[in-house]
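Backbone geometry:

***
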Amino acid sequence: MSQRSAALKSVLEKLYRRYNRRDFIKPDPLQFVYEYSDRRDMEVAAFLAAALAYGRVRQIQKSLSKLFAIMGDSPYRFVLHFNDARRRAFQTFKHRFTTGEDIAELLGLLRRILHGYGSIEGFFCGFLERSDLNVIPALTRFCASLRELYACTYGRPVRPGVSYLLTSPEKGSPCKRLNLFLRWMVREDGVDAGLWRCVDKARLVVPLDVHMGRLCRILGLCPHKSPSMAAAIRVTESFLEIQPADPVKYDFALSRIGILEDCTGRYRSRCELCELFEYCLERDDWTK
């Protein structure tokens, strides 16, 4: 490990100890997973919460609250027994450009998965291969299989709204929401649920979005200015040097800087209290 990486690891460990606690989860969509205690409910809730984790934080919270209110005490049982009557309950649902019909069709797919494989884990882990360096090939196979399952279930190609909820890596998307779901399911600590056993956390990829990308550029981990799968892989490789067995360990803590501290990448007096302040000072575009 280089001297710079060692110094960065020390900073990231401080952030991890500060933020990686259950009481900092809200307003993260992960909060909805912990509304349930049954592992089956938690897995289904996590998949849906991650799928709708786009847009403004308040809107995400509002939409997920409505979604899970419709699904009742057990998201797992709701999906397992999904039918036309339950489908109609989503007629007025809307989250940005995700419609109630999109959600209903997604739940129809999940129903087939739960009946056929018992869990989302049972379905996903069939796409893992020992030669894969990370989870991206499995995610690609997972999304392709879901498209095939959709065509078999509904007799037509995947509608755009559902396709967005199941964005595949094959066209270069960073797949932030699917990678976020995998982080929640695979890692286990004070924040992440760690419900799955078939995926090695060393294979996880950082759930990269605009905000995480900005922080990673500040830290010198990635030169890319916009989120992409190439950028996500580059960032993950940088974290692998620091934490080979757990490259996504610091994702939650770093994201708190943007969510809880309202970091915009521009200087404010409170910036001097941040663990990343010295790294920001090194930026060419940093102004005090």
Remarks:
- The mean pLDDT is 91.
